Amino acid sequence: MSHLTEEQIEAFERDGFVVVRGFYDDQEMAQIKHWVEEVQAYPDAPGKYQRYYEDSLAEPGQRLLNRMENFSPYHRGFAQLFHNSKLQEAISELFGEPAVLFKEKINFKFPGGDGFKPHQDHQAGWWKYNNLCITALICIDEANQENGCLEIAPGKHKSGMFKGWTPLSEEEMKEMEFISCPTQPGDMILFDSFTPHGSQPNLTDKQRRLLFITYNRLSEGDTREQYYEDKRKSYPQDCEREEGKEYVFRV
Ligand SMILES: O=C(O)CCC(=O)C(=O)O
After folding, report:
1. Span of the secretion signal (predicted)?
2. Could you give the angle at the alpha carbon of 236 between the alpha carbons of 233 and 239, nearest 5°?
């Protein structure tokens, strides 16, 4: 059974992304939101899932949970949502072959949480693991221009990768036009790992949570464990960091 229409597949190929409204219904979303709240409440734990913090832009000195990654091995509900599911099937339709989970994260964007400079996901060292990824953004809380929804530059995904490990420069963005993609809970945005995107800070008083689930072609291998092993070394979560050492988020 197909989960995407021909028009949606065409739009994805043309623009490098497609917005699928209401991919999950209200009942499914109530469940997913509950799971997000469960993992959000997990304690920091060295050697397990990975939790990253940021400085609040609103309250100096306050640390905010910014993102959580690699939690599906520690949560049965998410594992079922990501594997052998309608989500994995929809991504496989776009690849034209079976997809395998590469990584997953929740971006929490609490009030005062920062935005993301425009970038291509592939610039974050993903080229070491595969040639192309497709990410599904699942909207948990309404996302809009005030709280920092996703902003995307359509039609630029076929121009290859810009510089590794660095966001896009003003010069590189000269020919790009970023459009806002507001979403409601249950909406999904599918985008390719060469599609330029970013977002603004959250200047409202409510959190804005988005789930990002990334797959690659199964024919390029299952490299998820290797990716997280490498990331634990190169950019460890806050509770695994050495005191006095500086860690800088690059892209
Ligand atoms: O959560 C957001 O606002 C955008 C996230 C993003 O671009 C990323 O994590 O690569």
Report:
1. none
2. 135
